[in-house]
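README, section 4: Worked example with a bound small molecule

Sections 1 through 3 covered apo chains. Here we extend the same pipeline to holo records, where the ligand is supplied as SMILES alongside the sequence. The molecule in this example is S-adenosylmethionine. Nothing else about the input changes; the structure line simply encodes the ligand pose together with the chain.
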Amino acid sequence: MSKYTDYDSVSVNYDKTRKAVGIEIVLGFLASLPQPAQGLRVLDAGCGTGNYATLIQRWFPRVVCLDFSLGMLKKAKDKFEALRSQEGAFVQADMTHLPFAAGVFDAVVCNQSLHHIDEPGTDFKNQRSFFKHANRTLKPGGAVIINTITHEQLRDGVWWGDLIKPAVERMTGRFTSNEKLDEILRAAGFEITDQIVPVSTIIQQVGYFDEDALHRKEFRDGDSHFSLLTAPELQDTLERIDRMRADGQLGAYIAQRDRLRQRIGQFAYFVARKTREISS
Ligand SMILES: C[S@@+](CC[C@H](N)C(=O)[O-])C[C@H]1O[C@@H](n2cnc3c(N)ncnc32)[C@H](O)[C@@H]1O
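The generated complex, written as structure tokens:
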């Protein structure tokens, strides 16, 4: 479970700013697998409110949604019910110990959840466990599709990155570098085959360019960085924004920061194939 974000309470606001960004990558990859779409079994690990799973399910009906937070999982369930979908399966569990039999899934999808499972300085032991379990539960040749944020994107992928430096520093220890992710995946029996960075997509599309975005808790609830800021640090950030706005400089600041985002993007997908079984 996430140690720094209370997702049961965040679940109330999460969908106000978050959508299934990059879903075209997930769907495109799943569609390229040789198995027929109707039979493909997909696990969405850390599914949250089901934004990805509901879209996956339209094309690949046999999707299993797993999350630790009952609040997030309930939102996902409600969405499936609203779509009158009978197919979704919902599991409350810790993704570091997947409660499924061996060799049942064709693909395991994990969007923006890996950084919640480890504490800094632990050499990502929980991510290692997750990928070991993913290896066990995948069929031979199965794939993991990972949506994460690179260290560079943590710093410069959002216009406020420089204004919340203490949180970015704390967050960086929770995200693997690309090299570390590669090492962890190899040790768990995977090989990265694709890395895709959609530079035009913004994670919190709704309200992202609003000058008062960070003043709204509803907006901040869509980005777990803000859970890592102390109250005085948040206050300081908001005051700096207020000063720039009063000086008429905020618009130019956002535009200048956004040029970096346009070059490096806000998130990255890694696709890795299971190349061997590993002993658990
Ligand atoms: C940033 S949200 C991402 C949700 C969804 N995948 C999306 O992209 O919209 C992170 C999710 O990971 C879940 N999570 C955190 N730690 C977990 C764990 N150990 N096992 C299962 N889910 C976990 C949280 O409850 C939350 O729903």
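What to look for in the output: The first strand starts at residue 41 and ends at 45. The first helix runs from residue 7 to 10.

Section 5 describes how to batch many such records.
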